[in-house]
Write a structure and sequence with these properties.
The chain is an alpha+beta fold and 129 residues long. It has one domain. It contains four helices and ten strands. The strands form two sheets. Strands 1-2-3-4-5-7-8-10 form an eight-stranded mixed sheet. Strands 6-9 form a two-stranded antiparallel ribbon. The N and C termini lie far apart (36 Å).
């Protein structure tokens, strides 16, 4: 298992297993890990699962993506996001080009780039059955 610590003190762990690279985030001062997603190494795609009710930022109607992972990624170029309404496939660069920061008053959140849902929806490849 490989681990990297960001400037903010957040630890990212990556574990390779069965053709996938599983990425977990441990926020500074927290023992519990957050699943970032898994990279399909064969086609360099980061798979992310989201529940729209739980994960969609209501204020901007946007999904957040870990800024550090998106900027420093070396094992994936494509994002495959699946939520309760379908599957969306888009380039990682889209998040870097069109994503924006939202600021939180409370600590405990990592820095994220938020990509509006209307942009993500234009990359829909499959509806939920």
């Amino acid at each position: 298992m490989a681990a990297i610590t960001s400037r903010e003190g957040h630890r990212f762990e990556a574990e390779e297993k069965d053709g996938f690279l599983y990425i977990t985030l441990h926020l500074h001062g927290s023992r519990k890990g957050r699943n970032i997603g898994r990279v399909r190494l064969a086609d360099r795609t980061l798979e992310i699962m989201r529940n729209r009710e739980k994960h969609l930022m209501k204020k901007g109607k946007a999904y957040g993506f870990n800024e550090y992972v998106m900027r420093t990624a070396k094992t994936f170029d494509t994002i495959e996001l699946q939520d309760d309404y379908g599957t969306y496939v888009f380039p990682r660069q889209l998040i870097l080009d069109r994503g924006s920061y939202l600021h939180f008053k409370e600590e405990g959140f990592e820095k994220q780039l938020f990509l509006p849902l209307f942009i993500i929806q234009s990359f829909k490849v499959e509806d939920v059955i």
